[in-house]
Each structure stands twice: as C-alpha cells, then as structure tokens.
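Hello forum,

I keep getting stuck at the same step: I have a sequence, I want structure tokens, and every attempt I make locally crashes halfway through. Rather than fight my setup again tonight, could one of you with a working pipeline run this one for me? It's a single chain of 808 residues.
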Amino acid sequence: RTNNLKSIDVDIPVRKLTVVTGASGSGKSSLAFDTIFAEGQRCFAESLSSYSRRFLEQVPRPEVDRISGMLPAVAVDQKNEAKNPRSIVATAADVHDLLRLLFARAGAVYCPSCDLPVEGGRCPRCDFAHGGPLTARMLSFNHEQGACSACSGLGIVERCDPEKLVTHPRLSIAKGAMGGTRTGAFYTQPGDRHMAILHEVGRQHGVDFSLAWQELTAEAQGLALLGTGEREYQVVWNFERKGRSGSHSFRTVWRGFAGLVQEELERKRATCAKLGDLLALMTDAPCDACGGQRLAPVPASVRFAGLRLPQVLQLTVDGALAWLASLGEKPQEAVARLRSEMAMRLENLSGLSLGYLPLGRPTPSLSGGELQRLRIAAAIGSRLTDVLYVFDEPTVGLHPRDTKRLIEAIRELVARGNTVLAVEHDREVVLAADWIVELGPGPGEQGGTITWQGTPESRTEGIRQTKIGADKPMRNDSGRLFLKGARRRNLKSIDVELPLGAVTAITGVSGSGKSTLVREVLIPTLRDKKPRGCDSAPGLEAIARVFNFGPRGLADSVSSVPATVVGVFDDIRAAFAKTGEARAAGFSKQHFSYLSSAGRCPGCKGSGREQLGLGVFDEVWIPCRTCEGRRYNDDVLGARLRGASIADVLKMPVSSAMGFFEGHASIISRLVFLEKLGLGYLGLGQSAATLSGGEKMRLGLAGVLGQKKRARRDSQSSLYVFDEPTRGLGPNDVGRLLAVFEELTAKGDTVVVVEHEREVIARADWVIDLGPEGGDGGGEVVAMGSLAKLLRTGVGHTARFLASRLKN
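Reply #2:
Ran it on my machine without issues. Output:
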C-alpha cells in the first residue's frame, strides 16, 4: 500500500529479469524502490550494530503486510549522488585502484624537472633524489602523499571568469563595461584608486582605456583584466570622496580586475566572510601547479609502458583498452593479472556504450543515464551473486542502436544468479523481460493497481508501434537560426540550422555531442546574445527568451513544490488569510508560508521532515516528529478553508485541487498546465526531491507556461530546450507532451529536444543527427532535415534504426 498502491499482491521471479511498466505516476517506483528496495535496505540493516539499528527503528516501514524471499538489494538509479569532485569514471568503475597498483609495482620514477629516469635514486642531471619504494597511496590524488598541494588533488581551482566580469562590452570601463555586477561596479568607479592605476598602465603601454570595451584590442583587454605581473608603476591618484579631495602618490603593481576579484575571494574565504556575489563571477580552471593532473610532481612523473598515470586517465575507455592490448602477450605475472582485471572492467563499460568517456572525467558531469550505466558496469565487474538489482529506466540517454548491448549486460547479471527488477518503458527491454508487471490504469489515485502481468509473448499486442506520416511542411516558416563553426568538446566546427517556430529533435548515439551542442553552444549563445562556442550565429536576434529544461531539473529545495513552481501558492495563502479563523488570530498571508518563522513548525522549520545521521544509508528521512509532516504550527493549522487546513490543501493532488478551488480563476488557470502535462497526480506540496528527472522537467515547463504573458515583439519568439523530456513517460504521456510542443510552435515559439524516443523524433519537424559515433568518433553532423528526408537517404544510425522499426 506504499503511496498510491492499492493493496496489490506481486510475485517477482528470482534469478530472472522483471520489468515494471505503466503510466507515469502509476506506482512503478512505489513498488520497485519505495517498497521492495526499501525492505531490502532494512534486511541489510539487521547486520549492523545495535547502535545503528536503534536509529533505523524510526524509519517508516513500507506499507506492506509481508515480503518473503527477500534478497540483498542494490539500487542502480539515475540520481547523480556522486557530487564529490574527487569521483571520476576510473574510481567509480573500480579501475583507478588497479591502475595505481600497476604503476606502483611496475612503474619507474622520472625526474619532474629533467624528464630523465631516476637511476640509483638520483637524477643523472640534477640533484633530484627519490628513495624508497612506490606505494599505491603515493599515486592517489585522494591521499595527501599523492595529491597536488596547490589544489588538494582536485585538479581545478576557482578563477574569476573575464566573460562574466565584462557585462556591457559596448561601454567603456569607466562608464560601466563591468557595471553589471556589484563587484565589477565597485572596482571600476570613476575616480577610484584602481582606475587611477589602470590609466597609468594605459599611458605607459599606449592604450586608451576611455574607448568602449569592444573597441579595445585583445592585448589591451588582457592588460585590464589580467594585469602585468610584477611590474611596478608610479601612480598619482587625484581623489575626491565625501567632500574631501586631494592627491596621493604611490608605487604599485597592477593585478588586473580579474586578479583583484581573485584576491578579494581568497581574502574573504580566509576570514570566513560572506562571499556574496563573488562566486557568481568564478569559473573552474585547471590548476597551474599540476596542470589539472591532480597529482604532486613525483607521482605524476612515474611512467609505465610509455605513459604517466595522468596520461592514462586522459584516455577514453576504448583508448585505455587499446593501451592495455599494446603491453604484449606475455607481460610479467603481476602485470598480467592486473591487466586482465582492468580489461574486463573496461570492456564492461565499452559494452554499455560508454567507450567514449575519458577515465578521468568527473562523475558529477555525467548524465543520469551515463551514471546509471557506469554503475551497471561496476555491478557486473563485482561478480556478486544472489543479489536483487533494482534499475530505474536504464535506457535513459541511450540511443536505440545500443539497447541490445544494455539488454545483454543485464542478462549477464541474471546469468550469474542475480535477480533484476527494472522500471522501464522501452519496448525492446520490455520484450526482453522474463516477466512483466504493468501498473495503472492511470496516474496517482487512478493508478496503483496491477492491470496486467505475465510473459512478453502473451502481451506483444499491447506494446504500441510508432507510426509516421508523409513528409509534411514546416508548421511555421519563421526563419532560421544558424550556429556556424560550433567547436566545444568533441564538436568539429559544425554548421547547424534550426528552423524557428518548429520542433527540432537532436539525435545521435551516446557521446556524439548532442548535449554539448545544446548546453555549451546554443544556450550560452542565445543567453549572451553573441556567439559562444561557435564562430557566428545568424538569426539569434529573433529569439527573445530561452527556457532550459535540463536533466537536473528543479532544485531539491524546501520551496520547490508544484504550488510554488506554477505560482499558485500566493493566491492559496491569500485565500486562507481571509478565513474567519485567520482574521480572528490576526494572521496575514505570511503566516501561511512554510518558509516564514511566523507560521512554520519550529521543529523542522517548515520542511515537514528531518534527516537521520546514518553513514551507511544515503539521506534517510523521517516525518517531523513535532508536526508529523504537516510543516506548520498548530495555531496556523487551525485556520480552515472549506473545512481544510493549509496542510490538507498541500497534500491534495492537482486534479483534486482544481475542483476544490473552483471559482478561483487565477489558481485554475495555472493548475491546468499541470493537468495538460500529465502531472495531475502530484500533490500541491510534494517536494521536488521525491520527483523523477522527467517529472521535474515537466513541472518546470508548467511553471513557465503558467506565467503571465510578457509583452514581446511579433518578430521575436521564445525557445524551449529539453534534454530527454520523455524519461519516465508511457505512450499516452508522450502524446500529451507532444501536444504541448505543438501548441508552443503554433504560437510561433521554437522547441529543441535532445531525444532518443522514436515517437518524438517521428513527430518532429526537423532532425539533426550527430555522430557517427561517440567521443572522438562523434561531433559531426551526420544528417539534417525532415525525418522523411532522413529516411529516404538512410544516412546515420537514427535513420537506419527508425527505418527498420517505423511503419510507414
């Protein structure tokens, strides 16, 4: 009975693959994760100490009468919990420890300065000496013996980003070129000592800094931003402040405005002062000391088979496999064993279409789908048996071409005697299952029942095939946006054409450059109104606003709930403030905000929950013991609107709330967008932390659509960018989303979707297929045009795959 499950009885076959499918919100995750996996965690807790178990007694049990035959459970989901910047692909795949052992046992130390082998403990050219054996921890950037001292093994440092500092390039420095931020405005005040230094620097270097920023040469801009090192200048500062004026002569160096910001950040950080707007001006840059390699000079110099460890980490998975193969057929025994183990783990990654990932890539930069497949590969490499693996849509981010490889990997886990339970919609995965459990028939209260279960052979007629029509004209001939010479990451200076007022699907295999094109070229270019990551962008002036619905979705903050995201909570609080109980108590609108100390629960400060400090589990939360999860104090909960408290209203599903607030036009007009996007089952006060990535994306879209219309010129439109919005959606929900896309384009707006779902590609007006492979083998435009055109030419993996699947 967890969440919306209606007292269902389920049998999951052991040592088989079971797929749980159904409409979004039908109860799939409630069954797989909140019931079965949660009970698996509880079984594991029985092996913990009595001290830890006494905390677990406070954790709510899943609402289930009995679970028998439970196995040790491992969740392999899309949550990017690897937020630690020290986590990289090699560490997550259990390859890094093996590499360290390999270099410690068989590597040779080289002089960091002379790049010569250290023989007999000394460099033959200089006085560098190294004594004692190499140890594995000396080769770890996560240990003080191996980490670069300047960046503590992170490989990156925070630096002031000049592009963020210069906000108005059409103005001169004195007239506000850097005035868009409080920090920039402070350092560039006319008559300030820093401006006096700048003018003296300009005089001595022959630069007129009274010109507009964009009229300065690159060298002159560098002088202003980056300074001139240790060169000193004799400066005369004529000041006038607070009625005082005078002249002050001093000798100083010029660090540049970016250098001044950097010094201020370090000064405030050392004194634990508030960093304020400084962090917004920062960007991550490679560490100067180690060049981003993370290791100290000596461990970074150790070589094996012609490479240093940082160089191996720069290789892709496939590149590392080739390097291992180059070691020869009969290496020494210790090397042979390590090579065999590493090759097995790397082959697992490559087999899951992750061969393009560099071993040193930080895991926080991976998509949810990439991270989940990385964890699947690690699970295969662990060689565990009799374990229950629970997957959350493992095909997310995976091109249909590679689905077969994923199925083979899951089958390998099953063949070893494990049980796999996967929440999934993909047709090929469903058909590959040994057993299917379908929940529904609808979302929320309309779901929670088993509508069908059995083998795939008896249910193929219920799995829909995708159809496309004939070649169709563009919905709106509103012009084009071009990105010319796009070259971020693996993009090879490509030219891309985006029709305005239409739906464009960007497709391609994993790692082909889809997200890079969108996140690092398209969005920054439109946001900054100038080319970013490309040579030029003709047509960008036609886009007035950009709305980005990325994979991370909404922040998991206390305030991110459907009622606040779509903007109805203010109206709801105003309605409660007008009730008789509220007026009698002197309550204002503020008292009905769970973020305000006036009315929130003092125990949980309005969050409705509290966290248990258990190191063995991630984020174990329980309802607040003071308010029992209701967020408010008892006085505020006493105010009633049509018999319901503010806590009761926040628990209402959107569909029920629309009936409850009938007559409140401002509330209904926003909630209707949640219904349109298939989110009517969400509670008005449901935390974003409990939502899937797809639900967060659609909730964010509903929030934008619910905003009041802004005035705009007829010649300009909005551009909506989505990164795999169909994750977690059944066929009916995909249809609803596509209907909203068509409404947007009918109004002249533009939609860009990074997607693998064939239904979305089939309904798009324009397709850009990147590839042909991932990583270095990608980054090119394989095909571009209408889907019908792509199918006629048959060029690219997407066209070939769809041609073999779609019914014309």
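The CA atoms of residues 49 and 55 lie 11 Å apart. If your local run keeps crashing, start a new thread with the error log.
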